[in-house]
Design brief:
Elements (H helix, E strand, L loop, with lengths): L7 E4 L2 H9 L4 E4 L5 H8 L6 E4 L3 H10 L5 E4 L13 H4 L4 E4 L5 H16 L10 E2 L2 E2 L16
Parallel strand pairs: 1-2, 3-4, 4-5
Antiparallel strand pairs: 6-7
Length: 153
């Protein structure tokens, strides 16, 4: 459990999945080598309460299908393009909720590195990114693993 949540992750890298497990993830699936949706479903009977999706297009439909009844899907990106062949009734038959977010305002986004550093200094974990941008971890790295934990937990 991480901040009271059981976390499963997906990545195209076994090394990133191993690192996510070291950081507290309960499990995960490599979307390059496995049927990731089937693998996550096998690890989470009944489906997750929440799916956080940055990919969109190719994975959104499967993410909604994974949700448990009454679950939520949060979308903050569309790196693989538009969602195709989405059957809307799959969302409403589950009584699921879909949220879209930009993850905050540009000002809040710019303040994030300082927040992460202050939490790390207080004993929390810093975010990890699989990509670098101008010598710093990139906030746009695809398949990144991120975690920010308060000092209390």
């Amino acid at each position: 459990m991480h901040l009271g949540a059981r976390v499963l992750v997906t990545s195209g890298s076994d090394a990133k999945l191993a690192r996510a497990r070291e950081m507290g993830a309960a499990g995960g699936a490599n979307y390059r080598t496995w049927d990731w949706a089937r693998e996550i479903a096998a690890q989470w009977q009944g489906g997750p309460d929440v799916v956080i999706d940055s990919v969109g297009g190719e994975t959104f439909t499967e993410s909604v299908e994974l949700l448990k009844a009454g679950g939520r899907i949060v979308s903050y990106g569309a790196t693989t393009g538009p969602v195709k062949d989405f059957v809307l009734r799959n969302l409403f038959w589950k009584q699921a909720t879909a949220f879209g977010t930009t993850m905050g305002s540009p000002r809040e986004f710019a303040a994030m590195p300082k927040l992460l550093r202050s939490r790390a200094a207080a004993g929390g974990r810093q975010g990890l990114s699989s990509r670098r941008h101008r010598g710093r971890p990139s906030p746009h790295g695809r398949g990144e693993v991120s975690s920010a934990r308060s000092s209390s937990g």
